[in-house]
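Quick one, probably user error.
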C-alpha cells in the first residue's frame, strides 16, 4: 500500500472513530434535552391537611421515545421558607410528558406538552423549556390557561 492510500485509510478510520465517540452528532429528538435528574426550587404549597409547607421536588426524566418522557419524582416537605428544616418526604404521582410542537410562551422558545398521570390517564396541557441546566414547566387544567411558570420552577439539572 502506498503512502497516499495509508493516509486516506488513516483519515477514514479517524473520522469513523470520532463519529462513534460522539454518537454521530447532536440528537434532534425533542425528548433528549429533558432527560436527566432535576431538582425544583423551594416553593410554598398547602398540604391536603390544610397546613402550609415548603417543598423541593426531585424528578427523574427518562426518555421513552422521541417525544415522550416518563417522570418519577419524590418530594421533601419543610416547615420553613428556606427549605432547611425537613419534616417529611414521599413519592409524587408518576407522569408521562408528551412533547408536541415548539412555540413561544412568556417570550421564550418552549415546547407544548401534556403531562399524563399514570395510571389514571388524566392529562394536563402546558409548556416546558430548558437550556440544559434549568427547566421551566407549567401545566393547567383543561379549559384553563397558563400565565406564568409553575411554582416549582425553575428546576436545576443535577
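Nope, works fine. Designed sequence:
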Amino acid at each position: 500500500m502506498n503512502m497516499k492510500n495509508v493516509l486516506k485509510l488513516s483519515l477514514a478510520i479517524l473520522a469513523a472513530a470520532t463519529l462513534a465517540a460522539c454518537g454521530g452528532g447532536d440528537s434532534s429528538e425533542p425528548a433528549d434535552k429533558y432527560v436527566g435528574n432535576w431538582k425544583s426550587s423551594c416553593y410554598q404549597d398547602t398540604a391536603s391537611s390544610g397546613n402550609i409547607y415548603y417543598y423541593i421536588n426531585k424528578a427523574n426524566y427518562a426518555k421513552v421515545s422521541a417525544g415522550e418522557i416518563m417522570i418519577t419524582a419524590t418530594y421533601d416537605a419543610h416547615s420553613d421558607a428556606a427549605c432547611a428544616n425537613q419534616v417529611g418526604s414521599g413519592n409524587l404521582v408518576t407522569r408521562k410528558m408528551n412533547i408536541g410542537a415548539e412555540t413561544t410562551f412568556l417570550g421564550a422558545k418552549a415546547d407544548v406538552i401534556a403531562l399524563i398521570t399514570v395510571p389514571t390517564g388524566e392529562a394536563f396541557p402546558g409548556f416546558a423549556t430548558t437550556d440544559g441546566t434549568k427547566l421551566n414547566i407549567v401545566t393547567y387544567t383543561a379549559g384553563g390557561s397558563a400565565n406564568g411558570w409553575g411554582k416549582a420552577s425553575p428546576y436545576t439539572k443535577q
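Residues 30-157 form one domain.
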